[in-house]
UniProtKB/TrEMBL annotation:
Gene Ontology biological process terms from the UniProt entry: succinate transmembrane transport
Annotated compartments: Membrane
Region named Disordered: 1-22
Biased composition (Basic and acidic residues): 13-22
Organism: Rhodosorus marinus
A GO CC term attached to the entry: plasma membrane
Record field: transmembrane: 98-120, 127-152, 158-179, 186-206, 212-230
Membrane topology category: Multi-pass membrane protein
Similarity comment: family membership: Belongs to the acetate uptake transporter (AceTr) (TC 2.A.96) family.
Protein name listed in UniProt: Uncharacterized protein
Keyword Transmembrane helix: yes
UniProt xrefs under Pfam families: Gpr1_Fun34_YaaH
Protein's UniProt keywords contain Zinc: no
Length: 277
């Protein structure tokens, strides 16, 4: 496809269609981004090959962009943790069916979906955390549902096995907590409370007071997740860190808000370059 000067616009890094910047992005009339003008004009051209001939060069399709799945995962995590913690604190000890549904759908399915989408965002930490916690909540909800329906009855060794299970989850959450030291302080706060929740869940298999303590720490985990949810969603939409996350020094640059507007791109399998002369 050939695009004449009148039907093409260049956007500089400030989002202004003046075409004056060296990193301008060439956009045709239907908002298809073809290439950086600097890249095209700096190409080594064969002898006898003019810049006009660049119009016939087909560039590879740009990589597709995905939305941020983290708010969805944090939403599911926060709601499931809140409901599970409320039951531990005795607010609704008889509401097992409701708790199991929330655990499986919001705590399980929502987080697993978010985790899988994080794979396409090249985000290993969120992939591991969301899928891991999502599978845990789905298992917890399924076990509770089977118990309430009478299909599954805990054996005499259930408490000991559950204690080992929660011990491993404590270790898993601890590793994630160490990883958050390279991300931001709010996430560290949230994961520290998750570690304490699992740690007291070990004791809850043998002492009732430990279950209450676990419920108390779910409050901190829930508040941290809600804060992260709000920050992820609002900061991205407004394009600046309205809600602070206190990033680690190693990743502080990643949290600097984008100052320019990048036009939305419609992706095509093939695109032909166009040069504004």
């Amino acid at each position: 496809m050939s695009t004449e000067r009148a039907s093409a616009v260049t956007f500089d890094m400030d989002g202004k269609p003046d075409g004056s910047g060296k990193d301008d992005v060439l956009v045709d009339a239907d908002d298809t981004v073809f290439s950086s003008r600097t890249t095209i004009l700096s190409m080594a051209l064969p002898q006898g090959f003019s810049r006009q001939d660049l119009r016939s060069i087909k560039l590879p399709a740009p990589a597709p962009q995905f939305g941020n799945p983290s708010p969805l995962g944090l939403l599911g995590f926060a709601l499931a943790t809140m409901v599970g913690g409320a039951q531990k604190l005795g607010l609704d000890e008889e509401g097992g069916s409701f708790v199991s549904a929330v655990a499986m759908i919001l705590g399980g399915v929502a987080q697993i979906i978010a985790g899988i989408l994080c794979f396409y965002k090249n985000n290993t930490f969120s992939l591991t955390a969301f899928c891991g916690f999502g599978l845990h909540w789905f298992q917890a909800g399924l076990t509770l549902s089977l118990t309430l329906s009478g299909i599954y009855l805990p054996s005499s060794t259930y408490n000991g096995l559950a204690g080992v299970y929660y011990g491993l989850w404590t270790l898993f959450a601890l590793v994630l907590t160490v990883a958050t030291l390279r991300i931001n302080k709010v996430m560290t706060f949230t994961l520290v409370h998750v570690v304490l929740v699992f740690a007291f869940d070990i004791g809850a298999q043998f002492q009732h007071w430990s279950e209450r303590a676990s419920g108390v720490f779910t409050v901190g985990a829930t508040l941290g997740a809600v804060y992260l949810f709000a920050a992820d969603l609002i900061n991205e939409l407004f394009g600046e860190p309205i809600i602070p996350l206190w990033p680690s020094e190693a990743h502080k640059d990643d949290f600097i808000a984008a100052k320019g507007y990048v036009p939305r791109v419609h992706y095509h399998k093939e695109a032909t370059s166009s040069v504004v002369q």
